[in-house]
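Journal club prep, notes for RB
We'll compare a predicted complex against what the paper describes. Inputs for the adenosine-5'-triphosphate case:
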Amino acid sequence: MHDKMNEIVSLKNIVVDFDGEPVLTGLSLDIHDKEFVTFLGPSGCGKTTTLRVIGGFVQPKSGNVFFNGQDITHLPPYKRQVNTVFQKYALFPHLNVFENVAFGLRLQKKLDEKEIRLRVQEMLEVVGLKGYERRDTSNLSGGQQQRVAIARGLINHPKVLLLDEPLGALDLKLRKEMQLELKRLQQAMDITFIYVTHDQEEALTMSDTVVVMHDGDIQQIGSPIDIYNEPINAFVASFIGESNIIDGIMLRDFMVEFAGNEFTCVDKGFGHNELVQVVVRPEDIQVVPAIQGQLTGVVKEVIFKGVHYEMHVEQAGYEWIIHSTQASEPGELIGMCIGPDEIHIMQRAEA
Ligand code: ATP
């Protein structure tokens, strides 16, 4: 689908050092127009720095930033068609809701008061804050303040909105509501959102494309489903949801050996007897009577998680994690079955 869309932002070989420490190590990425793209990765991997390079707040040591094909590497932030929403809402405390949102329009100095009023009211309606115009921002809830910040970011119709962990300060329930709202908003405004989070569930929920980052570079780019189902390496597999990651040998096309057994899989194109890593998601292991299992193991621990039970099962020195709606007893010998579609093969990471 994406090849039909235009690239709106392109990063080419971006290198950023802080105090001689490499933070981005030659990062390249194309972002398509009207996409919801999320940078996902652990703290310190360089997500915010990448966002700031796009916004123009960090100047790369080398590499280029393109916007609609034009090199904007040296363009100051205010000349870019990009706005930013930060985790700390950074609202102006001395201005009410209306004036906070109107701020970007007033800077343009070409709209009359009537037009400004209309645009601000429209935008407040979009973010669900109609009627809040005269309210003081300091006594709004966190969620409402963030809506004001988003309205302010969108008021002058940027082509791209950068969002740096905007929901980080909200409680879990509100966070989930706002995730859906942000997705709806992005679609309604029909613009590109570039979003930063370290929360994998958030990334999977909202994004068209997830960019998984680690140590200043990109590990994998793909749709949430691709990233979840076909992680490219052990880092991505373990960062995106819980996983069983186990060493194996690709015996031939469609046949892999791990945990002391041979399994049919759907992967091919690996070398004969190539050493690989096998990823199996906890929810993809079927628990069966011991005698029927492809593998048998002893249940070590059972934890109730609300929707499922998480079981830790020891099998030949490896501890498997299994999610099941039915609990086995600690100490019980159980069988495990793994279907060909549930086995994901990755190249073995270098030692
Ligand atoms: P987090 O989720 O914790 O914000 P992140 O992935 O967004 O992490 P960055 O904020 O991009 O990571 O930071 C990457 C690295 O660069 C970190 O080690 C950080 O300490 C360092 N860093 C970021 N900004 C600066 C700066 N202005 N001066 C010096 N070091 C910086």
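Talking point for the session: The pocket of adenosine-5'-triphosphate is lined by residues 18-19, 23, 41, 43-49, 198 (CB under 6 Å).
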